[in-house]
Every structure is written in C-alpha cells, then in structure tokens.
Amino acid sequence: MIRQRANFDWMLKELADGVPGVEMIVVLSADGLRIARYGGEPDAADRVAAACAGVQSLAGAVAQELPHGDGEMKMVLIEINGGYFYLMAAGANAYLAVLSDMTCEPGRMGGMMRDLVVRIGAHLTSPPRRNGQTV
C-alpha cells in the first residue's frame, strides 16, 4: 500500500534526475508485484518486478549463511552488459529496483537509493498476501 501516490511519484523522478543513466525505477512487493514505476514500459516494469522477487529470495538465502548477520537482504548490485541492476530493501515487504546504463556511478546510486528509502520507507510497504489476498 502506498500512501499519497502523487508525492511518491515525484520522489522516484527525483531519484532518476539525481543520477545520470537511470532507465527505469520499480517499487515492488516481496512477492514480485509492481507497486509503482518511473520510466520504462509498464510490461517491462512488471517483468522486472517479478524477476526481483527471485533475486531478493536468492540474496536472502545467501545472507542466511553469514554467521553474524540477520539473514536480511539489504542491497544487491549486478553489473550487466550495458549497465547495472540495483535492488534494495525498502520497507516491510517492499523493494526498490533500478536499471541504469553504464554512465551511472554505482556508489552514487546506492547512496541516493538509501536516502530515498530513509525518506519514504514508511510509505514503501506491502502487506503479505496469501492466495492473492492481503493477509
């Protein structure tokens, strides 16, 4: 559930404008449903959101193996041919994903994403679902 959607949209735009090379920003639920997007086509954002569910699950499984961690995925960065993929935990059962080209500086993007999550993390929540229904 995202409160004050219009205010949220300008914050995604602010992230895109703050770092050169952003192609798409997607906010998604832990089960891979798109909550919001900035840039890109809606169908592409849906595919990215679905793929992110698998990535965050995989990252969480790997995080479980760290003996002194809490098993929670905080951020994933993947360098791909032509750009970068970023995925960050962004609230209860919600994630922030960004696709960028190679002009994007990963450290700057990570910092900007973290700042956005701190500012609006309480609004980036998605209640758990069971059989397609909110629990």
Automatic annotation (TrEMBL):
Claim: Transmembrane helix is one of the keywords in the record: yes
Every Roadblock/LAMTOR2 domain range: 9-100
Protein keywords: Membrane, Transmembrane, Transmembrane helix
Gene3D superfamilies the record matches: Dynein light chain 2a, cytoplasmic (3.30.450.30)
Transmembrane segments: 83-104
Protein name in UniProt: Dynein regulation protein LC7
Native source organism of the sequence: Streptomyces fungicidicus
Lineage of producing organism: Bacteria, Bacillati, Actinomycetota, Actinomycetes, Kitasatosporales
